[in-house]
Design a protein that fits this description.
The protein is α/β, with parallel strands linked by helices. Helix content is 47%, strand content 15%. It has one domain: NAD(P)-binding Rossmann-like Domain (Rossmann fold), CATH 3.40.50. The protein has a seven-stranded parallel beta sheet, sandwiched between helices. Bound molecules: nicotinamide-adenine-dinucleotide.
Length: 254
Amino acid sequence: MSGRLNGKVALITGASRGVGLADAQLMVAEGAKVVMTDINSEQGEAAAKIIGKDAMFIKQDVSSQEDWAAVIQAIRDTHGRLDILVNNAAILLFGEITNTTLERWQKIQSVNSDSVFIGTQAALPLMEESGGGSIINMSSSAAVFGMPYFVAYAASKSAVRGLTKAVAVHCHRSRNNVRCNSIHPDGIATDMPMEVAGDMPEMDGVSAMKALSYTCLPEDIAKTVLFLASDDSVGINGAAINVNKTATITPPYL
Ligand SMILES: NC(=O)c1ccc[n+]([C@@H]2O[C@H](COP(=O)([O-])OP(=O)(O)OC[C@H]3O[C@@H](n4cnc5c(N)ncnc54)[C@H](O)[C@@H]3O)[C@@H](O)[C@H]2O)c1
């Protein structure tokens, strides 16, 4: 590896498994100190231990303002700086416009988009004190294509897109040297889509596997996250990057 993140400190939410874990592994390999957070502490502690001394784990519910304050304070105490924030944690729940309850809608907004608002507010001051940095928000192709089986999820990821753009313009106007971009993958081969596949009326095991053949691996997404985290993307602010081999939407969702 080429040390593209040497000297940088990164915070990755939802890093116990899937894309967040792949991000953490790649960032440490590229020289960063990585703080991994997740609501699932058992898996997160174990993952950080395997990655080694440059990774630490902190339990965090991303929808809690108190947890964000505690995480940022811990990073300040341990590392004294923060250069990279990856807002990655999210949940995916099945539900169409006809059968999604308000309670379920609000739960998804709170974990997927309120968290990005709270987290950005909490992290920005330390990133500014550190001389700037990169905020990377995991959105989804759902924000672009509007997946009908996941109405609340699609809306939450559109909120992340709008927030990203607003923060990017704010940072430019503030001349704080912070950049903010969103990533929009289609299917990724992680537990997230597989755990809801059974809830989808037209998504049987065969079509789920067919969908998977079109998808990216978590490691593929991590490479885009690394690019946005590193100084290689110094001129990129407010971008919405599609990471999607099909250039369209995977067939089972249509
Ligand atoms: N997997 C896909 O097909 C896909 C496609 C497009 C976008 N995405 C996005 O990519 C990101 C990573 O997805 P993934 O596939 O790795 O998912 P995943 O379910 O494997 O991992 C998500 C992690 O977030 C954690 N989490 C859930 N709620 C939390 C909370 N309240 N506080 C803290 N942590 C919490 C989970 O414990 C889990 O470890 C997400 O933002 C997701 O929406 C995924």
